[in-house]
């Protein structure tokens, strides 16, 4: 599997620039190979090794727990408040209270889940199976396991919001600085693979086609 790098034609025309690119790429690959000490032999322990821990895990858990608790309370209180507001004989006030409570009860949990569902709280690596397991929270704050091999990772050319890479088609977000071993991040992102230099050819319009 090759990494593709689009390079403008005018940049390659300079031999010095091209030599610099080749030198940088060789340094990246060499650095990655030298740091791959996590490739254990078949006698390695079978337990998963934690290679990443999300710094915002506790905060996300607390916010989602508060949101879900508030939603349950809102569902219970909504009929009571609607009944009390109806006695005021004020339609505008009833609609205002119902709308406000409905937003906090139903909309907020879905918005929080949309933002945080990609956040990887923990990333584990199994030396025997050579697979990673990303842990994220689902809507009901339960741990969801996403197991994948490094070859199953795709990195979008234009990453979406809160998306670092995709594993098995699922978008995931990680902070590169939080990896205990940077070599794992380099491997997942495909930095250990050779570059496939694609030159962007500039086509000039000569005002006609050659016959």
UniProtKB/TrEMBL annotation:
Family from the record: Belongs to the TMEM70 family.
Keyword Endoplasmic reticulum belongs to the record: no
Keywords in alphabetical order: Membrane, Transmembrane, Transmembrane helix
InterPro entries given in the database record: TMEM70 (IPR009724), TMEM70/TMEM186/TMEM223 (IPR045325)
Spans traversing the lipid bilayer: 62-81, 93-115
Protein name (Swiss-Prot/TrEMBL): Transmembrane protein 70
UniProt entry tagged with the keyword Flavoprotein: no
Taxonomic source organism: Timema podura
